[in-house]
Amino acid sequence: MSGTGVSGDLRNYILVTAAYWSNTLADGAARILVLFYFFDQGYSPFEVATLFVLYEFFGIVTNLVGGWIASRLGLKSTLFSGLLVQLVALGMLGLVPSAWLVVPWVMASQALSGIAKDLTKMSSKSAVKLVAPEDSESSLFRWVAVLTGSKNALKGVGFFLGGVLLTLVGFQTAMVILMALVASGLVLAATMMHGDLGRADVGARFRHMFSHERAINMLAAARLFLFASRDVWFVVGLPVYLESVLGWSFWEVGGFLAIWVIGYGIVQASAPSVIGRRGRETGRTPDGRTATRLALVLALLPALIAIAVSSDLDPTLAIVVGLIIFGVVFAMNSSVHSYLILSYATSEKIAKSVGFYYMANAGGRLLGTALSGLLYQWQGLSACLWVSCGFVLASAALSTFLPAASRRSHRRLRDAV
């Protein structure tokens, strides 16, 4: 590829990432706004969880269909479509009479938000494969980690922004402000992006979206349980517990979740240097064994937090400290997964492979979200944490079927460092 081509791809990638960041910030803020606004209106934890069920369900559909659309029309179409859909979703909550804010209407809005989030995420994640050096696995790991880490950091900022906006300007005005944020990202990308992102394959068939590669299927299954293990206590159970049991205010809960997600993003971005240090010593890139070991360590943490919350220990201390450690290990495991899917996928099938992989990711979030409200209402936060432990163990078991790093990858990492 010529230098001009590399420069053009890099420019487009930066614009895709900037647009993705604007959508991520708005998505995180909107999620906190919906959660606390309706819980404050007297909705039960399970009822609040149902508001997000279609968000996660349509994330599954979007990653499957979106990967096919991106293969046929190019990643640029999925990016712009995602931003436009997000504007509609936010407008449904911010530009209508308050009497319209009932469960079916909000669920429909959240369904559109789920579609928007995964269309933009798939576009940006797939774009990494197009600009990272093809002969350097360590470079690919760094590119993926930086994008994923920065995305989660901004999602954390969004949590804090949502709590602050709900306190200062109210629910609907906050949604209008978020619309302006997403619109700015769309205008920037539409006016400055040149050409397309990758090559369209007009002959792509929908049946090809389902992976026939064992490594990708096993990784997708492990990813499903990994993200279910987080969301089963993080989406509804934890924020409701902090607000209703520990007495935290909206902005305090939003601020704490923001700090956690920002720190989680920083850890993800630094994963290549942490994991790579051992890789430089052994000449190996992350592989299935890395994912398995991290999952086994992670499984201990929700169990320990559950024991601490049920004992005479200070619940605030147990949750804050436990969540910090959980976030570090979870971020490392997630970063390894994000690297592995791009490592396993070929450039020709990148949109399809990433779409299938994030379909499983969305499936895990759907499972975790639905159970988070149900389990919390049934048996409290401890039940959410014990189920989280079981999900991580399932992810670890599935990771044992992932291949070890190839000798070729070992040489690539050794040459790069």
From the structure above, extract its key features:
single chain; about 425 residues; globular; disordered N terminus
> From the 3D coordinates, which CATH architecture would you assign?
Up-down Bundle
CATH class: Mainly Alpha
Number of helices: 15
Low-confidence stretches: 1-6, 406-417
Give the total of beta strands: 0
Structural class of the secondary elements?
A: mainly alpha
SSE run: HHHHHHHHHHHHHHH
Q: Whole-number average pLDDT?
A: 78
Question: What spatial form do the alpha-carbon principal axes imply?
Answer: globular
In whole angstroms, how far apart are the ends?
A: 23 Å
Radius of gyration: 21 Å
Helical coverage, percent range: over 70%
How would you describe what is shown here?
The structure is a single chain. The protein has helices at 3-40, 45-50, 53-73, 75-94, 103-131, 137-168, 171-192, 214-234, 237-244, 250-282, 288-310, 315-344, 350-379, 381-399, 407-416. The protein is an all-alpha fold. 82% of the residues lie in helices and 0% in strands. It has one domain (3-192, 211-416): Growth Hormone, Chain: A (Up-down Bundle). It is built from 15 helices and no strands.
Brief summary:
This protein is mainly alpha-helical and 417 residues long. It has helices spanning 3-40, 45-50, 53-73, 75-94, 103-131, 137-168, 171-192, 214-234, 237-244, 250-282, 288-310, 315-344, 350-379, 381-399, 407-416.
Write the layout of secondary structure elements.
Layout (H helix, E strand, L loop, with lengths): L2 H38 L4 H6 L2 H21 L1 H20 L8 H29 L5 H32 L2 H22 L21 H21 L2 H8 L5 H33 L5 H23 L4 H30 L5 H30 L1 H19 L7 H10 L1
Helix pairs in contact: 1-4, 1-5, 1-6, 1-7, 3-4, 3-5, 3-13, 4-5, 4-7, 5-6, 5-13, 6-10, 6-12, 8-12, 8-13, 8-14, 10-12, 11-12, 11-14, 13-14
